[in-house]
Write a structure and sequence with these properties.
five-stranded mixed β-sheet; 161 residues
Length: 161
């Protein structure tokens, strides 16, 4: 009997096919966009600015990464309405195995179609200055790792700036 007609080869082929189907369907079944509001809230706390994100997408192929679609940081009060920073997409590469331990390790960052609008008002202030909102320092138990851990980032790419 030929090797490609054996029972074990067929079982293996079906398992590989199911794994590939799961990899293609997982981004549609896992709704990562539900974390968008929490991400926006955290970014607004850190920057003191209004932030908009149109959508968050998770991609498993060709490599695991999170795509942030239409990221915008608004002008501060005292400046015309509009964006200080507008980015069409930010692709954040993630390490797979740490995710299983509920840790996020960023392996790469790609930023596409960046637009920065720098303005200065009559008092000499610019819209690029970020003022972090004051918050008390949270005490963490000894040995607790942070939620997001940035190790060595293999590469950062900027296109259409």
């Amino acid at each position: 009997m030929a090797w490609h007609r054996s029972k074990w080869f067929r079982i293996f082929a079906v398992l590989v096919g199911l794994l590939l189907a799961a990899l293609f369907l997982a981004p549609y079944l896992l709704d990562i966009d539900r974390y968008r509001a929490a991400a926006i809230e955290q970014l607004e706390k850190e920057t003191g600015r209004d932030v908009e994100i149109e959508k968050l997408r998770l991609h498993l192929l060709p490599r695991l990464h999170l795509a942030v679609v239409n990221f915008r940081v608004k002008n501060p009060p005292g400046f015309p309405q509009g964006d200080t920073l507008a980015v069409e997409s930010i692709n954040i590469g993630l390490a797979f195995w740490p995710l299983l331990k509920r840790q996020v390790e960023i392996t790469s960052v790609g930023i596409d179609n960046v637009q920065v609008n720098l303005l200065e008002n009559e008092r000499g202030q610019t819209n690029a200055e970020l003022r972090r909102r004051a918050r008390p320092a949270a005490k963490k138990p000894a040995g607790e790792k942070p939620l997001v851990e940035v190790t060595r980032i293999g590469g950062v790419s900027l296109t259409d700036v």
